[in-house]
């Protein structure tokens, strides 16, 4: 009867916390009844059966979400793997208490289940779908640890809390108290991180119109495709001050031959509103699931979905990263289920991720929260527009700024002023070190139990702990020795500034090119920094004071600024205006005015307004630009060729000495890099 009660209670807690009810507080307790049972004298087979039954009952929400929409064969393998391995983790913790100590038991369950969950996610066609840690997305303080070690660290904390409760109920006060204290520290860390200042805000919008999609699927005509894009374009033109807009996966069906005609209304809307428009498309021949990024300057970038949902999606999978430059990137729907895929893209300096998606109705929040978790892991804000699900706009800490259901008819729009995220986190840099550490701890505990069972004390009873057993502090020593190198690796990876060498020929050509603007800092420097920037790039604006601080602190550094105007017509004119100011001997004043302006530089008028406020004769600036525009355009073209040779994909592009900086640049990292360059390493 007790076994049945434990299984029933855990099953209910798993179902309510992981499923449609989104009862996240229950996830902290869900495994506790089973662990309590494992710590009693209950037969091991009962513990195993109860654990299988409870975990399987908890997954009933998957049937609620997908029954009749996805064949059982798609999800059953993942569910079976979890249902079979979860009882092993529970039983392992029971053995840890019998053969080891309460301290070993405290670590055994969270370490092993975290490692198993990661291993299943590594081989599953659904990525990390089903991870326990996703249950806490509605509680942002609990998921901030994902920025350090990923979603599986959240799973570990939840399992640690449940295990501490089970040990507490068995009277193991010291170990249980330590577990509760560790969980409290995680929440304190989360609260502190949530209180940190945020980056600059931009207005974004998610749009989804089920009616136009249904008409396209019904009619399959060029007229219906053009009607869909005209509908979205009309709504875009009525949204005020939106800088980025996202339209769902597969919102526009079109043949490649019709692309220009079908997308024309959205291209016009992007130019008219100054917004970057992301639209999901599908094409039949060849079959492709794509997202088009339509820039205000008329530029177009294309991203192909990389992770397809078999057997429904038979398109050609993409290979591109989805990085657009300027701290923006695209992924499509299921791509966000794969932490490694997103982490590789985020490492390029992503601060806002746009995600066209298409869900299955009832799973809207369950799937959306996975994308939100990716943002917390990697330090980017999220704009997700989905059919048959939930539109979400969230910041880099996972807080929901706007949310709207798209399961009904008509156009659904969600807008918010979202702060750009800080960019790559510790997790982005070190990856899944934590679950591997959990696997190492599990193997170590298993080895300890095996050795202990083979060396019983003289006169001891079978399965009884020896009074001459090694003290718990001594038994923990191998664990400390094993984890120390991994922790050192994590700290070093977090503090390192990722770079790669610049070929000598490329570097020589880059430095030999005539400068359109004066260099700053030392004239006889031993280290030269080259900054490829755009006046509309938020990351460039954040980098500027760091570079000025470096120049003030280090007399051996020279800074060469090169305009790489890729974010619209306003960026191009701002570069031209700075060149004109350089001719007049006032480059630094113009540069600072443009770089520190709170105004978006979308048009020529915006640039001239900023310069006029800074005291410039704007008529003279504009006349100079008109007179030398061909020359200035050649400078930008040359800079663009240099960037291509370097392999830089987005602003800012930073070269320190002979090293190209990858990802976000921080002041301390740049100082260390300068020291390395001087040492020749």
Strand content: 15-25%
Domain module tally: 3
* Helix content percent band: 40-55%
Number of helices: 26
Query: In which order are the strands of the major sheet placed?
Result: 5-4-3-2-1-12
Inertia-based shape: globular
* Largest sheet properties: 6 strands, mixed
N-to-C CA distance: 68 Å
Q: Over all CA atoms, what is the radius of gyration? A: 28 Å
Spans of at least 5 consecutive residues with low confidence: 457-496
Mean pLDDT: 87
- Assign the structural class, choosing from mainly alpha, mainly beta, alpha/beta, alpha+beta, or little secondary structure: alpha/beta
Number of beta strands: 18
Outline of this structure?
The chain has 681 residues and is an alpha/beta fold.
Walk me through this protein's architecture.
- The structure is a single chain.
- The protein is of the alpha/beta class.
- The protein has 3 domains: 2-195 and 432-453 and 471-495, no CATH class; 201-427, Carbon-nitrogen hydrolase (Nitrilase/N-carbamoyl-D-aminoacid amidohydrolase), CATH 3.60.110.10; 499-679, Glutaredoxin (3-Layer(aba) Sandwich), CATH 3.40.30.
- Helix content is 53%, strand content 16%.
- It contains 26 helices and 18 strands.
- Strands 5-4-3-2-1-12 form a 6-stranded mixed beta sheet.
- Strand 15, helix 21 (538-553) and strand 16 form a beta-alpha-beta unit.
- Helix 1 (2-18) packs antiparallel against helix 2 (32-38) and helix 22 (569-583) crosses helix 24 (604-613).
- The chain is globular, with a radius of gyration of 28 Å.
- It starts with a helix and ends with a helix.
